[in-house]
Every structure is written in structure tokens, then in C-alpha cells.
UniProtKB/TrEMBL annotation:
The lineage of its organism: Eukaryota, Fungi, Dikarya, Basidiomycota, Agaricomycotina. It comes from Coniophora puteana (strain RWD-64-598). Coiled coil: none annotated. Belongs to the short-chain dehydrogenases/reductases (SDR) family. GO terms for molecular function: oxidoreductase activity. This is NAD(P)-binding protein. Keywords: Oxidoreductase.
Length: 289
């Protein structure tokens, strides 16, 4: 069934809470079509009862399974004929020092945040290029401030987002402009979602004994991220994301939060100083012509 030309078709992962849920609600209220994917579809029972199947398709999806991702996209295409925007949002958090997090927990996090996001990325690009007519689509990759800068008690979460940033930047440079595929990284700071405040999508590892001093950065970050001091409003943020999705020529990055802006400025300054101080070290490293 083809969608009305006035409605955009969105494919959203991680739609049970946080950005995914709030964006799903916003889009449905304004008349867009949403394929909402999540691990437990029952979380959207109330929403599903409020909208017809011609506007909302709820699918169970574990993004760590590449075949399941492909099947979900196929269901979406069968229902609506095309997908205009993919909001690649499913994710988890793991709060703990690098020395404190066990390998199993770290691998589970990377399976969702990197490999899960990769499966969605690959299928989204294929659909935009090979299924949509006319060709094209928008891929919005949900990264983080911690995909730009490392942070205490966040080493593996940060690693997963750094990996997603590198993958996305490489993809961005690979795509043929003729395919009309627009890719952007959404980089939120601290927002009140299930990734913070002791929510269901954050695994809190007990502190490593060497880092229990409350004056250390990791202890301070643990206290902040699980407290009411997290001030980002996800409802307001998704309104910005929706507005961003309408830009004809969107920038590659959308930083969302004053902490992200501050971190970017600090990193730009640090990189500039490094270039000035260390540029000469790359002289005389080359074969003589």
C-alpha cells in the first residue's frame, strides 16, 4: 500500500522510550507514517490503539540480528512501498570505569550500539538506493556527546558511539551523490531518557575499588547521570530533530545540548593546539625523491 504523498514514512528503532518514543508520538500527531520497531511491542499498545495500521506499524525487532533487521524493512516496504527517513536510535548505556566493566557487558553494549546500528545502516542505504522510487532517503544516526569526546565511567559506551561516528563518516564519503541519500549524525548531550537516571536501558556496574574516591571524575559523572540534574527535555529535542529532517541540505552533524556545544569547542581548541605544537614532528619522514 503506497503512502499518501503528503505523509513521510519513518522507520524508527528503539521506539519504546526516550527519543524514539517521543518522536513516534510527534510524527503520528502531525500525520506522518511510522514503522515503530522495538524489542517489546506491547510497550506501544496504547499508541497502536489510537492510530490505524495505515499510519502506524509496530514491529518487534532486535537490531543485533541482521536477518531480523532485513525482515523488518521488508515488512515496512510491503506495507507502505517506500521508507523516507530512518531514525537509527536503538541503544543502551553501560555506566562504569574501563577497569570495572566485564567483557560480556561490554560486548553486549557494542552488539546493540554499534553492530545493531550497522545492520540498520546497511539496510537503510540499500532500500533508499534500490527500492525507493525516486531514489533517495534520509538516515539519521543517533550518536552522543560521548561519540565526540570520551568521558569518565563511559569508556565502552563512548567506544560504541565513536565507532558509529567513524562508520557513518566513512559511509557519508562513499555514497554516490546521484543516489540522493542524506546522512546526518544526531549528537545529544544528557537528556532524561532510559539511558540516564537509572532507566531501564542503562547497566550500572559497581565502581572499581580504585575509583571509589568521590572526588574522582568517574564518581562525579556517576552521580550526575543518575540524578535529577540531567536537564535535557527529550520532547523538545525531538521537535528539533523533526525540523532538522526537513532541511534540503542538512549538515553532517546536529549537536543537541549546551554540553555538546561546549565539548565541541574544547575539542576544536585541543586539536588546534596539537596541530600547532606537533606539526613539525611529521617533517623528514618521507622517501627522498
Amino acid at each position: 500500500m503506497a503512502s499518501p504523498t503528503s505523509s513521510r514514512v519513518w522507520f524508527i528503532t528503539g521506539s519504546s522510550s526516550g527519543f524514539g518514543f517521543e518522536l513516534t508520538q510527534l510524527l503520528l500527531a502531525q500525520g506522518d507514517i511510522v514503522i515503530a520497531t522495538l524489542r517489546k511491542p506491547s510497550a506501544l499498545d496504547t499508541l497502536a490503539a489510537s492510530y490505524p495500521p495505515s499510519q502506524l506499524l509496530v514491529l518487534q525487532l532486535d537490531v543485533t540480528s541482521a536477518p531480523a533487521v532485513r525482515a523488518a524493512f521488508a515488512r515496512a516496504i510491503d506495507a507502505f512501498g517506500r521508507i523516507d527517513i530512518v531514525f537509527n536510535n536503538a541503544g543502551q548505556n553501560c555506566l562504569g570505569e574501563v577497569e570495572a566493566v566485564d567483557e560480556e557487558s561490554a560486548r553486549r553494549l557494542l552488539d546493540v550500539n554499534f553492530w545493531g546500528a550497522t545492520h540498520v545502516t546497511q539496510e537503510a542505504v540499500r532500500v533508499f538506493r534500490e527500492v525507493n522510487r525516486p531514489q533517495g532517503g534520509r538516515l539519521l544516526q543517533v550518536s552522543s556527546r560521548l561519540g565526540l569526546v570520551g568521558g569518565p565511567a563511559s569508556g565502552f559506551y563512548s567506544a560504541s558511539k565513536f565507532a558509529l561516528e567513524g562508520l557513518t563518516e566513512s559511509l557519508y564519503k562513499e555514497l554516490n551523490p546521484a543516489w540522493n541519500i542524506k546522512v546526518s549524525l544526531i549528537e545529544p548531550g544528557p537528556f532524561r531518557t532510559n539511558l540516564t537516571g537509572g532507566g531501564g536501558n542503562v547497566h550500572i556496574v559497581p565502581p572499581h575499588p580504585a575509583y571509589e574516591d568521590p572526588s574522582l571524575p568517574s564518581a562525579q559523572f556517576r552521580a550526575f547521570i543518575t540524578s535529577g540534574a540531567v536537564d535535557g527535555d527529550a520532547v523538545k529535542a525531538v521537535k528539533v530533530v523533526e525540523r532538522f529532517s526537513r532541511l534540503e541540505n542538512p549538515p553532517f552533524r546536529l549537536p543537541l545540548h549546551k554540553r555538546v556545544i561546549a565539548s565541541l569547542r574544547d575539542k576544536i581548541g585541543e586539536l588546534s593546539r596539537t596541530v600547532e605544537e606537533m606539526e613539525a614532528w611529521s617533517e623528514d619522514l618521507y622517501f627522498e625523491e
